[in-house]
Amino acid sequence: MSEAGPKTTNLLQGTLDLLILRALSLEPLHGLGISRRIEQITRGTFQVKPGSLFPALHRMEEAGWLAPSWGESENNRKAKYYRLTAAGRRQAQAETEEWQRISLAMAAALQAT
Amino acid sequence: MSMGSLAYLSRLWNNLTHRRKVERELDQEMSAYLSLLAEESSPREARLTAGGIEQLKEQVREVKAGFFMQTILQDVRYGWRMLRRSPTFTVVAILALALGIGATTTIFSIVYGVLLRPLPYPADERIAMVFNHFSPQNTDHGTLSLADYLDWKKGNHAFESAELFRTAVFDVTGAKEPEQVQGVSSTAGFFSTLRVQPLMGRIFLPGEDAANADGVVVVSENWWRSSLGGDPGILGKKLNLNGVPSTVIGVMPSSFHFPRPPYKLWTNLRLIPPKRRGPFGWRGLARLKPGVTLAQAQMETNGVGQRIQQENPQTYQRMTMPVVPLRDELIGNVRTALLAFLGAVLVLLAIAAVNVACLLLARATAREKEIALRVSLGAGSGRLIRQLLTESLLLSILGGVAGCVLAYLGIAALRAWNPGNLPRIEDVRLDGVALGFALLVSAVTGVLFGVAPAFQSGRDRLASSLREGGRGGTARAGRRRLQAVLVMGELALALILVTSAGLLVRSFVLLGQVRSGSQAPPENVLSMKISPIPSKYRTSEQIIPFYSRVLERAKATPGVVYAGISDSLPPDRQYDYDTFVIQGQQLAPGETNPAVTCPIVSADYFRALGIPLVRGRFFTEHDNGDAPAVVIISESLARRYFPNDNPIGRRLKASGPDLHDTPFMEIVGVVGGVRYTGLDSDPADAYYQPYAQTLYYQRTNLVVRANGPAASLATSLRREIRELDADTVVSDVVTMDEALGASIVGPKFRTLLVGGFALCALLLAAIGIYGVIAYSVAQRTQEIGIRMALGAQRSKVIGQVVAQGVRLALAGTVVGIAGALFATRLLASLLFAVKATDVLTFAVGPLILIAVASLASFLPACRAAMVDPVIALRHE
Prior knowledge:
The complex is a heterodimer. Helix content of chain A is 53%, strand content 14%. Chain A has helices spanning 15-23, 31-41, 50-62, 86-112; strands at residues 29-30, 66-72, 78-84. In chain A, a hairpin with a 5-residue loop joins strand 2 and strand 3. The longest helix of chain A has 27 residues, at 86-112. In chain B, helix 6 runs antiparallel to helix 12 (335-366), helix 6 crosses helix 15 (432-460) and helix 22 runs parallel beside helix 25 (839-865). The relative contact order of chain B is 0.10. By secondary structure, chain B is of the alpha+beta class. Chain B is 52% helix and 15% strand. In chain B, the strands form five sheets. In chain B, strands 16, 18, 19, 20, 21, 22 and 23 form a seven-stranded mixed beta sheet that branches. In chain B, strands 3-4-9-6-8-7 form a six-stranded mixed barrel. At the A-B interface, helix 3 and strand 3 of A face helix 1, helix 2 and helix 4 of B.
């Protein structure tokens, strides 16, 4: 499910979910918008390919974290936008905290050597 | 349930019910994505993504709720289309399965209803019947006398209470019409021992079996409705039961019956202190105390039996009191036959399943291309096996549904017919248990017959047809081997059924050749039971003239040649049996000869039935109460007790446990042997007494011989008896023909049923062999064509193909004989005059099988021989 970015960084299990949740925290986006936003907020480290993105979006929609809404895309086509639900926000909060704990722990471990 | 799983369920529901909408939205989402991508990124990237769009969609579908269920539905839909595409295959397979599952479900329902379904008494497994077994009577489940019962009751600690009952026919007056009703006479704790409650009124009260208690009766709901008009005020009204006024105190609900549904009333037995050990005819009924086992109770009653024997050495020797679980006693001896049926039908089901497996294998050839295509499109072998298993399950479920319809019809027919007088047939029905069983059987057979072909296909997939140019070598060889093994197994199973059926048929034919001892043409003999009501005929002075008048009237009826009466009739209507002693015979104190049949007859009874006179004379009208007592003995009794003497002029007397002072009777004749206890038993040792010289007895049979078929005489004879006494009940009117047929209806049913299974098995095996041979001929068309082009004889080709079928049959026979030797051993107790290893049957069975196999391979062989070499060579 992970895709290699320019610096061949593999996405850890569960990281994609958190990235999507973060990407959607400002405004609803469609699929391509989400992958662009992720690229942008990770400063190009992660490029999410459609084979990972869409199954994840649908899985998270099934889980009730994302809600679909149909709108017009930039080129005036009907497109599916995703927005965070209340459950999605709670999930984003929880996953962010979890990730921060892990990254702190990892940083400490790396400094110890 | 958490919010999350609720949301999941609603998604699942949405995905499953709005499949089209979900798909459309996925399409829209993807095309919007692609068009945006085309504008924003390189054309190459857009093209690459567009190329993988179907795969992408599939990846999305896989994460959606209900994906697994959808693929199953998809498999089922696909399987359904495949089944519809080859209707002949589908119909044959479903018919074979319906036959197997229907027959299995029917037999299972019978076995369940008769052997397993609980009786209509709570915790019936704790209820037992108690019997009396002693020498010289030696009846396994012999009955108790009142005195035995009182001793048992005194010594009882193992049971909650000790009750006594007997079944009897009651002449009931006081209802709509005089009627004969089967009923039970029992001690007061009868109903409470069974733990049943009345629909209205009450059951017996403690003490209502006292010697001076008033007569009370509890009636069945059905009889209350049919014969008492459903009178709501029936409680407190009086009925006359065999002349005893009895107050109706209760009505039992229709769910209750004891011991069987034909018994419609239960009356109180009055325990009048007995003066002797007899008469017999009573059975004990008791419920085990909590914590007491049957074996413990048995030890206690045997102890009671020993004490009774020690106190009454002249009546009993080697006395025990067998304790038998109520259900075992009610079911009797049908267990073996029913289990044999179940075994036979399971074998048939296995044959049907193997047959369908063969059909599936043959069809796999036709589907090679399709399967290869699916493999090349990326179907894994697991996916392929699942698809094929789904198809076979679909087949078996369809077969199961059709089978349930067959079972429903079969059970209805069996209940209406009640073949073989099965006990508890009223408890046999197609209910949830039977349907559950059918479902289970369908699923199991579906997996069983689907697994071999499916895995074979799974293995085949590498040797895909695409690679081999549509003429798969190894794959087909594998299938052919599997098919041959399956057909061999099928033939082996069929042989088991054929030999079992053969043994039963041989038994039945031999049983049908047994003569009852009556030499009159059976259709010319008519008998009927006549039961004068006891209140009118209390003494022999009253009853003997009545029977004399009945005989006169019968004799005078046009068409009647001889008319006689007898309380026992062949082939299986023994009425009474008793022990006897011969004057001058040296016996130890208390010893008697074994009990023999002792019919009470009129002068012309022997002539009416055509029982031959061996020596001496028949009875005459002069052998009455004023004349010296006389007796006629059967040939076998004469041979046994007078091996070297002429018995005529010797004297014997009855010497039952309760008969010590009857007079000696002079033997005046010896007659041919008659079977009174069934055609499968030997002609009975018997002594006959003239009815005019015996003590009072109530019921007897009128038996007449006509000079042609006698059935039409029934009406006029009934009328004559009614004119003599309108209250006398006439029942059981049958010709000897009918009586003989009825006496072997059990063996007949067994033979027909297992024979029918065997025929079905042969038919299925024939289809199986035909399939294998036809398939192999089709495979070898080219080879056969070459050989014929090179000058092979047509007959030789036919011979070779048939030989192939016969080889299969021979292999199946070897396995089958081993199986049959095992299976028929279990049948041994159902056979008559034939050994379970009967050489003839074991020789003929394989021959039949080989004949069927040759016949089934002959058709494809002929087709092979008709091959035009030119066409065959071009066959590609």
